[in-house]
Design goal:
Layout (H helix, E strand, L loop, with lengths): L2 E4 H10 L4 H9 L3 H7 L13 E4 L6 E4 L3 H10 L2
Helix pairs in contact: 2-3
Length: 81
């Protein structure tokens, strides 16, 4: 199910993750770590790909619609531990 939040909220979640979390998420989902970083607003597509993230201009850095929340859900679970 799609979820919409601000770009700043998405970056706050990524920046709050403990060191090694991006790699752990990537390993569990069999993805490149850069693909996970791109999900959180990165833009290095030489090493990773996009993951159904759509960014629209607006307050708070714009609005981000995530088509698949699997990575976000895993990140939030790590933060709630």
């Amino acid at each position: 199910m799609a979820k919409t939040l601000t770009f700043n909220e998405l970056r706050r979640i990524k920046n709050s993750l403990p060191e090694g979390s991006i790699q752990a998420i990537a390993d569990k989902l069999n993805l490149e770590p850069q693909t996970v970083r791109n999900y959180f607003g990165g833009n290095d597509y030489d090493e990773g790909c996009t993951m159904g993230v759509h960014i629209e201009p607006g307050p708070g850095g714009g609005f981000v619609t995530l088509e698949d929340t699997t990575i976000l859900d895993m990140a939030l679970a790590i933060l709630n531990q």
